[in-house]
Design goal:
This protein has 217 residues and is mostly helical. The chain contains 9 helices and no strands. It is globular and about 50 Å long.
Length: 217
């Protein structure tokens, strides 16, 4: 991470590595959440996908710019994560990557734009809005918090930490919600009282960004 708080491809790679480790650690928990309102495979699917991401990143040239790294991540997730999560996260990462183009260093404002492009892609593909009990309930407030902090001139790590807190709040807010999208929506009112697994994995990935940024030299 450059002195001005910009991100590099190494930051993005570290973010994905942190995400993979955290998803693997929480795999059983995510599956347990999904067993209550889904197909009981979210943790397994996400862990498989991010393990494949780590392998794919190991094949990329060291000079691959951050945006292209994220595009490769998205392509890998689409092809390896089952269920709805693969297309959704694949779209999110590819939209973010395309937003960054081929720039080698990414200022915080550009990262905020990329994260917004990711959320917009998820909303477009999944037709979900905040309050529908999906990953959007964690991602949308996280991106809003990140962009607000950056606009206020706060350090990148603080902006990422704000995003983490917002994602966790959004994740917890799904518990009393009625599911309106995905497999959980089939349960109707029985979906109330359960934390959404997609929002949970989204919060885990946002938290991984904080660790990636904080550990940069």
């Amino acid at each position: 991470m450059a002195g001005n708080g910009s991100l590099t491809a190494d930051t993005v790679r570290r973010w994905m590595a942190e995400s993979a480790a955290a998803i693997a650690e929480q795999r059983d928990y995510l599956t347990q959440l999904d067993a209550a309102i889904g197909d009981a495979d979210h943790g397994t699917n996400m862990a498989r996908g991010f393990a494949a991401v780590e392998a794919r990143l190991g094949e990329l040239d060291g000079g691959t710019p951050p945006g292209q790294v994220l595009v490769a991540v998205g392509q890998t997730l689409v092809s390896t994560v089952g269920g709805a999560s693969g297309p959704l996260w694949g779209t999110a990462m590819r939209r973010a990557g395309k937003s960054l183009a081929d720039d080698e260093t990414i200022p915080p404002s550009a990262l905020g734009d990329a994260l917004q492009a990711a959320v917009d892609g998820v909303i477009e593909l999944g037709a979900a809005q905040p309050g529908d009990k999906t990953m959007v309930d964690a991602l949308a407030p996280a991106v809003d918090a990140f962009r607000s902090a950056v606009a206020a001139g706060r350090p990148l790590v603080d902006a990422a930490s704000d995003a983490e807190s917002a994602a966790e709040d959004g994740m917890r807010s799904t518990v009393p919600m009625l599911a309106r999208k995905g497999r959980a929506s089939y349960l109707g009112e029985r979906s109330i009282g359960h934390q959404d697994p997609g929002a949970t994995s989204a919060a885990i990935i946002v938290a991984a960004l904080v660790r990636a940024v904080a550990s940069e030299p």
